[in-house]
């Protein structure tokens, strides 16, 4: 296989010596030399400068080395995934998610995973971003999904997951909804429906209001995205929410999107893990499915 020849080539390049590479690979030195010769013949280029004491990469060899490392990594990933298809994945995963992710994105992902790996027990805790961060730090959860800016720290690994579009919505028939484009100053002195402190959505909307110097006339606070959505639909006020949570209501006309001039709002979703938390095969497979098959 070409991967065998690349493995030999990479080992020779890293050891700068044919005999040392042959020893590491449990091959004869002539066998190592044959692999290198076959590669050079196939590529039509000299890959190594040879001397009695050591070898070094030619310009062509440096190019092949760089790409060979990538090919090896991808091959190892593919081999691991294929191995997982043969092995029965069992165990349990304690998952935490902030409201938008836990209520509107994860259910479909979990259903797909459970259909393929029915022996894995999935338990989901939904809370606001700060609650999920605290639970992961306390090793109460194996993994967490949070909204907004999550910073890697001495105890947490942060993996970027996906982007999320934020929009401003209003009740059907709201005075602002008659405008094709809403100027930012038209958001002044409006009644706003907000999430509670500690929520990623609340942190995002607070930052937006601070940056644009928007002053609410009055605000109402709800501790769930569902509550915010229902309050807006009932006519309580306007809100900044993820497009995920209102896509059905936008389609039916229960709420209306306010299109703000020259404004595109976006935030990040992240996966968080405790650095010292043990990771099971079930969690490894779950993460691969999420990170390699994203919407």
TrEMBL record:
Q: Does the keyword DNA-binding apply?
A: yes
Record keywords: DNA-binding, Transcription, Transcription regulation
State the InterPro entries in the record.
LysR_HTH_N, LysR_subst-bd, WH-like_DNA-bd_sf, WH_DNA-bd_sf
The chain positions of domain HTH lysR-type read 1-58
Q: Which domain of life is it from?
A: Bacteria
Q: Tell me if Transcription is a UniProt keyword of this record.
A: yes
Gene Ontology MF annotations? DNA-binding transcription factor activity; transcription cis-regulatory region binding
Q: What family does the entry list?
A: Belongs to the LysR transcriptional regulatory family.
Q: What is this protein called?
A: LysR family transcriptional regulator
Query: What organism is this sequence from?
Result: Paenibacillus xylanivorans
Instruction: Specify the taxonomic lineage.
Output: Bacteria, Bacillati, Bacillota, Bacilli, Bacillales
